[in-house]
């Protein structure tokens, strides 16, 4: 058996043993139990899980890059100064050049770059959904295991809390 399965079996056995002891020892006592809703587990897991938050932020950052991938590079503006500029005044003549440039890529390059960015964003979204489903599965499985243990315990001990009490009355 794997280590994880041993731990699950031990936890299930401890819960079963605890519920059996509590049914037989405290059968006459009424005590208040706090019920926790399954939805509250899910909401807390979605809010506090660092893996899920990382996948979500990765998806959001890749989604923001899609629009920028369709745009050409930014234009460049510059000024060039050449020549002597009154340093020793050797008949100072200064040449000033102003420059403006824009790189225009091959027509399909922007389209391909944008579609690649969109596919990367979609892949990041699918990874986020996978992490969400994995988190839900890891929450639901122990919840339903506990449910089945309690159902088996109720079937074995009946409503009175002692073993086989319902079978004798039949």
Description:
The protein is built from five helices and two strands; from the N terminus they run H-H-H-E-E-H-H. Helix 1 packs parallel to helix 4 (107-157), helix 2 (38-48) runs antiparallel to helix 4 and helix 3 packs antiparallel against helix 4. With 170 residues, it is mostly helical. It is rod-shaped and about 110 Å long. The protein has one domain. A two-stranded antiparallel sheet has the order 1-2.
Helix content: 55-70%
3D shape:
rod-shaped
Instruction: Going across the biggest sheet, name each strand in turn.
Output: 1-2
The strand count comes to 2
Properties at a glance:
170 residues; mainly alpha; two-stranded antiparallel ribbon
Quick summary:
The protein is mainly alpha-helical. It has helices spanning 3-25, 38-48, 50-69, 107-157, 165-168, and strands at 76-83, 94-101. α2 packs antiparallel against α4 and α3 (50-69) packs antiparallel against α4 (107-157).
Topology:
Blueprint lengths: L2 H23 L12 H11 L1 H20 L6 E8 L10 E8 L5 H51 L7 H4 L2
Antiparallel strand pairs: 1-2
Helix pairs in contact: 1-4, 2-4, 3-4
């Amino acid at each position: 058996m794997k280590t994880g399965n041993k731990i699950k079996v031990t936890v299930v056995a401890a819960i079963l043993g605890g519920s059996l002891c509590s049914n037989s020892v405290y059968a006459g006592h009424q005590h208040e139990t706090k019920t926790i809703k399954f939805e509250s587990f899910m909401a807390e897991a979605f809010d506090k899980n660092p893996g899920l938050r990382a996948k979500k932020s990765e998806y959001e950052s890749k989604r923001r890059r899609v629009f920028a991938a369709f745009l050409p590079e930014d234009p460049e503006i510059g000024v060039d100064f050449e020549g002597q500029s009154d340093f020793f005044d050797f008949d100072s003549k200064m040449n000033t050049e102003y420059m403006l440039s824009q790189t225009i890529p091959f027509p399909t390059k922007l389209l391909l770059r944008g579609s690649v960015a969109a596919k990367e964003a979609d892949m990041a979204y699918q990874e986020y959904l996978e992490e969400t489903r994995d988190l839900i599965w890891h929450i639901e499985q122990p919840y339903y295991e506990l449910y089945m243990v309690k159902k088996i315990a109720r079937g074995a001990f009946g409503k009175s809390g002692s073993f086989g009490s319902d079978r004798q009355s039949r």
